[in-house]
Amino acid sequence: MDIILSNANPDPIYAQIADQIRSQIVGGVLKEGTLLPSIRVLAKELRISVITTKRAYDELEKEGYIQTIAAKGSYVASRNHEQIKEEYLRKIEEHMRAIMLLANFLELKEEELGMMYELLKRGDE
């Protein structure tokens, strides 16, 4: 499991860990039923506090991405792909609302926003 932490990232360390594990689960890198490193092992590998790692795992468990079984460890939980898709659609809607507020403030037209999107999309190819 690859996790890269950055001090330049404004997000707290536990959030960086949770985000990266979440992305690996949603992206299919970590499959359903996969055993995750123990909290202690991951903390040691990342050279961070066990408390920080536990907080990341607790967040993922609360969101339903992982499940922890006492004395056995934490596993990638089975999730409905439609449920995951709905979560991401909600996130896109939140970002779009923020974009709309900024665009209205700057009095940007829909065509200008569309052009920005197309330029960004081409840049990622």
From TrEMBL:
Residue span(s) of domain HTH gntR-type: 11-79
Keyword vocabulary terms for this entry: DNA-binding, Transcription, Transcription regulation
Keyword Transcription tagged: yes
Alphabetized SUPFAM superfamilies for the sequence: Winged helix' DNA-binding domain
CDD domains (UniProt xref): WHTH_GntR (cd07377)
Superkingdom of source: Bacteria
Protein name: GntR family transcriptional regulator
Organism: Sphaerochaeta halotolerans
Family matches, as SMART domains: HTH_GNTR
Gene3D superfamilies: Winged helix-like DNA-binding domain superfamily/Winged helix DNA-binding domain
MF (Gene Ontology): DNA binding; DNA-binding transcription factor activity
Stored InterPro entries: Tscrpt_reg_HTH_GntR (IPR000524), WH-like_DNA-bd_sf (IPR036388), WH_DNA-bd_sf (IPR036390)
Pfam families according to UniProt: GntR (PF00392)
Segments traversing the membrane: none
